[in-house]
């Protein structure tokens, strides 16, 4: 048994890709998300293809009580978690701040910031008890460079950046690694969610260049989590070759 990985937001995008990547390498998985049917389908697929054990936990990371209850429910070997991938997150809308929907703001901050905190707080005692472990927080290039109409989303990912640095310091005495990975443009469900199901707008984001894929990011997560015990990548920004940062993207043939 290589170990156990807990991935939030595992039913799509980076989370699903990470689950598949770790499964191929023989790791057992705890997968979380809000959609039970997707969790069940992913569990069936991974166990059939890779012969690993998968435990699905259906809850919303925004719900503090549900999050704590889900982690508390773990028993036996499932409590021996080696890596937490804090992946659950989203962007909603792309509007000037004075035109922003406050419900969208709440959803982004509750998911991207508070949800990450709730899961981490519930899980850290298990890592401390073992004197080892690794927390990987999925951020964004939006944490490094604010762009027009990105306001609250950028703020939420800047918080992930700061929290990752704080976790790294606070958990230093316990042998727990903390890594923040900040992907740039990646073609997942991200833009479709941001534009609330408008496929045309979502597709336009990626025209004229080759974006990252979920698999690209999953490979990086896997690499960071399998380095020697004495090596920790603290902060990593990854973009497509055509993207310099959150703002500058070179597009052709559009």
TrEMBL record:
For this protein, the record's Gene3D superfamilies field holds:
NAD(P)-binding Rossmann-like Domain
Domain Ketoreductase span(s) in chain numbering: 3-184
Q: Which PROSITE patterns match?
A: ADH_SHORT (PS00061)
Enumerate the UniProt keywords alphabetically.
Answer: Oxidoreductase
Output the InterPro entries linked to this UniProt entry: KR_dom (IPR057326), NAD(P)-bd_dom_sf (IPR036291), Sc_DH/Rdtase_CS (IPR020904), SDR_fam (IPR002347)
**Which parts pass through the membrane?**
none
Check the record and name the Pfam families matching this protein: adh_short
* Family label: Belongs to the short-chain dehydrogenases/reductases (SDR) family.
Query: What name does this protein carry?
Result: SDR family NAD(P)-dependent oxidoreductase
